[in-house]
Write a structure and sequence with these properties.
The complex is a heterodimer of chains A (117) and B (111).
Chain A: E1 5-7, E2 10-13, E3 19-24, E4 31-37, E5 43-50, E6 65-69, E7 75-79, E8 88-95, E9 107-108, E10 112-116
Parallel strand pairs in A: 2-10
Antiparallel strand pairs in A: 1-3, 3-7, 4-5, 4-8, 6-7, 8-9, 8-10
Chain B: E1 4-5, E2 10-14, E3 19-25, E4 32-38, E5 45-51, E6 56-59, E7 62-67, E8 72-77, E9 86-93, E10 99-101, E11 105-110
Parallel strand pairs in B: 2-11
Antiparallel strand pairs in B: 1-3, 3-8, 4-5, 4-9, 6-7, 7-8, 9-10, 9-11
The chains are: A mainly beta (117), B mainly beta (111).
Chain lengths: 117, 111
């Protein structure tokens, strides 16, 4: 597609349930990032995939969060046993990789708004 | 520890005047700085960037200034238009390519 696609756009779940959020990056972009934005906060980095390298998971807030990227394209962010503090907008971005300004621009999807009741 | 700080949560400007959005950072290892604009219910969209080895970058109505000694950058919008009303995020690019964002400044441009 033309841009980064995320689904679902909205997700309401009950505390304790597992959720899966999907991201379809721009075709040809080898780097993929997950961020989240909690109410009144900035964008918080969660995880980064680059090609076939091991992902950088340094931003994941707990072991309830995991992500995978199949075939170097689509990524799924999974939150197990959701808690109310997980409520946020989860944003995915993709980019080319390399030196120079053109390569470092990240393009964002519209996000998934997760509400944990 | 906030590596990127946007100390003004909001800014109101009259149409046609200059908007100046400020950003401070603590991490000297950032190699690029980027500004993103975000409308409600949409993802952030890239606006303009600057390399850490430059002090100014201009693109149309948008200019970003970088003062490395003060660890400060600013985004100037001249002239401001009502369509510029959005939340503006400043970000520094870390060693892994991930962006570290500030909390954003909500700009309102009044007609």
């Amino acid at each position: 597609g033309a841009g980064v696609s995320q689904s679902p756009s909205n997700k309401v779940t009950e505390k304790g349930k597992d959720v899966e959020l999907r991201c379809d990056p721009i075709s040809g972009h080898t780097a993929l990032y997950w961020y989240r934005q909690s109410l009144g906060q900035g964008l918080e980095f969660l995880i980064y995939f680059q090609g076939n390298s091991a992902p950088d998971k340094s931003g994941l807030p707990s072991d309830r969060f995991s992500a995978e990227r199949t075939g170097g394209s689509v990524s799924t962010l999974t939150i197990q046993r959701t808690q109310q503090e997980d409520s946020a907008v989860y944003l995915c971005a993709s980019s080319l990789v390399g030196t120079g300004e053109v390569k470092n621009i990240q393009y964002f999807g519209a996000g998934t708004r997760l509400s944990v009741l | 520890d906030q590596q990127v700080k946007q100390n003004s949560p909001s800014l109101s400007v009259q149409e046609g005047r200059i908007s100046i959005l400020n950003c401070d950072y603590t991490n000297s290892m950032f190699d690029y700085f980027l500004w993103y604009k975000k409308y409600p219910a949409e993802g952030p969209t890239f606006l303009i960037s600057i390399s850490s080895i430059k002090d100014k970058n201009e693109d149309g109505r948008f200019t970003v200034f970088l003062n490395k000694s003060a660890k400060h950058l600013s985004l100037h919008i001249v002239p401001s238009q009502p369509g510029d009303s959005a939340v503006y995020f400043c970000a520094g690019r870390g060693s892994q390519g991930n962006l570290i964002f500030g909390k954003g400044t909500k700009l309102s441009v009044k007609p």
